[in-house]
Amino acid sequence: MAQIFEITVNGEPRQVEAEADLPLIYVLRNELGLTGTRYGCGLEQCGSCMVLIDGEPSYACARAMDSVAGRTVQTIEDLGTVADPHPLQQAFLDEQAGQCGYCLSGILISAKALLDRNPSPSRADIVAALDGHLCRCGAHSRIIRAVDRAAAMLRGEGGV
Amino acid sequence: MSVEKVDLPLSLTVNPRLEQWLKFETDETVRVATGKVEIGQGVVTALSQIAAEELDLPLDRVVMLSGDSDEGPDERYTSSSLSIMVSGASIRLVCAEARALLVARAALRLNCSAAQLSVADGRFFVDGAASDISYWSVAPEIDWGQTATGSVAPKAPAEYRIVGQNVPRQDLPAKLAGGAYIYDRIPDDVVHARMLRQPGRDAVLRALDEAAVRHAAGGEIEIFQRGNFVAFLGADERSVEAAAAAAVAHAKWANAPDIEPGQQGAAWLRGQPSDDRQYGAEVNPDAPGEVVEARFSRPYIAHASLAPSCALAQFSGEHLTIWSHGQGMHPLRRNIAEVLELPIEAITAKHLNGPGCYGHNGADDVALDVAIIAMHKPGSCIRLQWRREEEFGFEPFGPAMLVDLRVRLDEEGRPADWTAEVWSPTHVQRPGTGSGFLLAAAALPNPPAAPVPQDPLEEAGGGGTRNATPYYDIPKTRILHHLVTAPPVRTSALRTLGALPNVFALEAMIDDLAIRAGADPLDYRLSMLSDPRARAVLKTVAKRADWSQRGKGGEGQGLGLAFARYKNTAAYAAVAVALRVDEQVHLDHIWVVADGGLVINPDGVRNQLEGGAIQGASWTLKEQVTMLGQGVTSLDWDSYPILRFSEIPEIEAEVLNQPEQPSLGVGECSVSPTAAAIGNSVAHALGHRIHDMPLSRERIMAALLN
Questions:
Q1: Contact B495, B358 (CB under 8 A)
Q2: Alpha-carbon distance A157 to nearest alpha carbon in chain B (angstroms)
Q3: Which residue of A129, B204, B466, B639 sits 20 to 30 Å from the alpha carbon of B514, by its own alpha carbon?
Q4: How far is residue B533's CA from residue B3's CA, in Å, rounded to a whole number?
């Protein structure tokens, strides 16, 4: 039975008609046109689909709509754009952190959550925050450096 | 312009007209086309640098068109570290020739000599004074349908301003902002599709409980069946996904595969039916000298792209358009035309970005799947995404390999003759190579005959034999190759083909022979390596890793190194690995030093060297496809783990730039030496050699008990 759910997505209140057990990722990609959230495994194993729900990194691929009702969801589209990138996106460009890039939407989301709660993460903190994410191309060391660089940029250190 | 005859790169022979490569657009840009596609390696950016350099244009006036079967050149597949060597060489010659034609035309218009002309930002200057004409004003006066002669000398490397610079990747900004992929193309009235896969090429569908499948779907779906090809279609993606997931248990197949325990291991390959060949020198089995033998193995491994493969297709009633993330749009179009019995010209195949893996994953197969469905529903845009289990279960796997080495030593303890005996299923079943076909073709009525497996030719680097011949100065080397013809699963190209198991084995043997000779492994290598470029990468990596301070080993700390020149013809790479072993392997540091001749984009090359090291480490330490009964059983990331962020060491990659030397393919060169250096480092840490990959916790524990 479809129901109406009210959620806030990227700052905008939205009403969505969906089955209670429909995973959030289908709503984001197919109903709201937010295709930056990526399907990887549907099993919460790879991290491609990571979004922020009330600020916490959460897998969208198996997250039922009825558990998201009334909450706020933030996706990669809310970080920045090609023309106006978020410091994290800029740091990834500066480090050329990515190859195929498919993992990056989810990684940027987890990195944002990390920097929101810890402006000066150690390498171990960054690794721990990203360990739920897989990357097949082997861009890991650049990604770790990019998160470190973004943290410095957000602290106002170094040139942007 | 000189007219001497030159050997043209293959791509330019196949696509000889200048217009197949270049188009001067009215917005004062130049469209440069390539058949090679972006698979994460940054090749489109590097090719744009080559074009801009020869055309004397800033990068932002060069717009790349990549992977378009109608408007771009046919360069077959993006594979084997050949893109810069072949597509790059073609673009360089075409752009040099175009510039010369434009200058000659401008000289006529301006009534001056070509020598008086210079070009800045596409505008002509006469003796340094600005004229009112540009590339774009004279371009319409040139016949771009003419055949490239390749006779205009490109710039000397000393003149390069753009080639050799770190240029940011063109594809990354959109990828970082949540765009750029085939997965993002969801038209409003799209029809979503999912498959029920035929478990094997001989399997016959006896029954499908359609009522149960429709119930599981929840929403409205259409079930489309043609022979043993079954697809679920509908407006709601989740419903077709649910239908396909449920259908597996509600389908009854006859003649499905029945894989036995043991068939998943490399040891099974020995004694199986095989196509046997011998290469290299004759070796006298009775020659004097001590003989050292060892056997090495690698299991089946997966491409394991981060997302399941996806394709879209739309049939207008006359023309079929396909969007795909495959590695070659021209071959894809030909192969699909053959299955659908359409003229090639009735199909357009366009490349869009997909998830990487550096090999032949499900991308081509899903494109045929969706094309079959699109032909059934003219007018509709069909979007088919494989299920995660489908990608893990039906991609063409990297083959298992068994490698026996037999080395006869001379009086100094160096190899006098060297035999590598290799058992392996084929490494290339890309559709259209004669060795394989698109998966769904076997499910349709009138399926193609079972393919006769072939491997790439030796002159192309071989498949199972790739890098089986040591690059060292050894008087006699030979390869005995057993191409195993009936493996339990379909196999095809995965980064480096057979080079990784072969280099893992041969560099292990070299280390063990050094110990036997009482020599340092680095010195031992250098004592039989005369190529100065090979010596340079080895010596440099040893310096970076502080090799001279290496401990005696056997106490859990390891430092190992390895060398290979990819295909024995492409880039040189030496790798050193520092690690610790307790009940498992912990990587601490990887140093990579490579020589790829002229480097187009140094940071792009370092990115490839780093990623290659990590992918090689992941295969060496963790990866193994499991299979039993109807097929593959490693169907998710828990049963097929890969290297994680918490397991990534510090990595330093260095490129020894050789601008006066031709570019050598670098995309794969770090992978195999990394695997071998890990093997050697683990042997150093344990004081005991492990011959079988992956170097898993179980194998480490077994070695410790010894």
A1: yes
A2: 22
A3: B466
A4: 34
| Structure confidence by residue, pLDDT tens digits, B238-290 | 999 999 999 999 999 999 999 999 999 999 999 999 999 999 999 998 999 99
Q: Are residues B611 and B485 in the same domain?
A: yes
Domain containing B388 equals 186-256+303-394
Interface contact flag, A76 B177, Cβ < 8 Å? yes
Which residues of B are less than 8 Å from A42 in CB distance?
388
The interface residues of chain A toward chain B in range 56-115, judged by CB-CB distance below 8 A, are 75-77, 79-82, 85, 89, 92-93, 96, 98-105, 108
Identify whether residues A103 and A138 lie together within a single domain: yes
CATH of the domain at A107: 1.10.150.120
Last residue of a domain, one of A25, A43, A78: A78
Both tokens assigned to A13: 């209140």
Q: Is residue A159 part of a domain?
A: no
Report the domain count for chain A. Answer: 2
**Residue B187 preceded by cis peptide, ω within 30:** no
Distance from the Cα of B393 to chain A's closest Cα (Å) equals 13
How high is the ipTM of this complex?
0.97
Which of A135, A115, A109 lies closest to A57 in space, CA to CA? A109
Of B353, B368, B394, which residue is a domain's last?
A: B394
Which pair of structure tokens corresponds to residue B324? 């795909």
pLDDT tens readout for residues B359-390: 999 999 999 999 999 999 999 999 999 999 99
Residues A105, A42 within the same domain: no
Per-residue pLDDT band for B136 (boundaries 50, 70, 90) equals very high
Q: Closest approach of chain B CAs to the CA of A156, in angstroms?
A: 22
Chain A nearest C-alpha distance from B143 (Å): 38
What is the CATH number for B65?
3.30.365.10
Q: How far apart are CA B693 and CA B622, in angstroms?
A: 8
User: Is B280 within the bounds of a domain?
Assistant: no
pLDDT one-digit tens code per residue, B632-688: 999 999 999 999 999 999 999 999 989 999 999 999 999 999 999 999 999 999 999
**Domain count of chain B?**
3
Determine whether the interchain pair B177/A85 forms a contact, defined as Cβ–Cβ distance below 8 Å.
yes
Give the residue from chain B lying closest to A23, CA to CA: B238
Residue of A nearest to B643 (CA): A134
Same domain for B631 and B582: yes
Candidate from A40, A45, A130 with C-beta closest to B638: A45
Question: Is there a contact between B385 and B309 (Cβ–Cβ < 8 Å)?
Answer: yes
- Rounded distance between C-alpha atoms, residue B34 and residue B68, angstroms: 8
Whether A100 and B638 lie within 8 Å, measured CB to CB: no
Contacts of A135 in chain B (CB under 8 A): 306, 645
End residue of a domain, out of A78, A111, A146? A78
Q: Is A49 within 8 Å of chain B by CB?
A: no
